[in-house]
Design a protein that fits this description.
This protein is mainly β. It is about 15% helix and about 35% strand. It has a 6-stranded mixed sheet with strand order 1-5-6-4-3-2. It is globular, with a radius of gyration of 15 Å.
C-alpha cells in the first residue's frame, strides 16, 4: 500500500513518516501551482500510476513547530483530512515527512523536517 500513489475506498491517507523512499522516487514534479505562507504547491505525476497530484511541500523548523515536530496548522490539516471523504473536498492521498540532513561540519543534530502533503489534483483555480 505504501508503494502506490492512490488510495481506494475510505482507507485514509498513506502516512510515510520519516519515509524510506524520497518524494522524488514516488512523484515527478511538473511545475509550481502556487505559493503561500506555509510552502509551495507543485503539480506532480505519480511514477507508479501516472496519476496527476498536487504536492504541498512545507519546511518545519524549531521556530515553526514550537517543539512539536511539525507545524500545528499542518498537523490539524492532516488530522482533519486524512479520513474525510466528500465530493467537494480534494482528497489527501499521502503524507511524507523526511528529516533534512545537517551539514557534515555541524555537531548539532538535525531537527529540520520537510513535510509534503499529496492531494488529488483539481484542475479548477478559484482565484480566477
Amino acid at each position: 500500500r505504501t508503494e502506490t500513489c492512490e488510495t481506494s475506498g475510505n482507507e485514509g491517507a498513506v502516512m510515510d513518516f520519516l519515509a524510506t523512499k524520497r518524494l522524488s522516487e514516488l512523484y515527478r514534479l511538473d511545475g509550481i501551482i502556487g505559493e503561500g505562507a506555509y510552502g509551495v504547491v507543485y503539480k506532480g505525476i505519480c511514477e507508479d500510476s501516472k496519476a496527476t497530484v498536487a504536492i504541498k511541500s512545507m519546511k518545519a523548523s524549531r521556530e515553526t513547530t514550537k517543539g512539536f515536530g511539525i507545524p500545528m496548522d499542518a498537523y490539524r490539516e492532516v488530522k482533519i483530512l486524512k479520513d474525510l471523504r466528500h465530493r467537494n473536498i480534494v482528497e489527501l492521498l499521502r503524507v511524507v515527512m523526511t528529516r533534512d540532513k545537517q551539514p557534515e561540519e555541524s555537531s548539532l543534530p538535525s531537527i529540520a523536517l520537510s513535510l509534503s502533503l499529496v492531494y488529488g489534483y483539481a484542475e479548477h483555480d478559484l482565484s480566477q
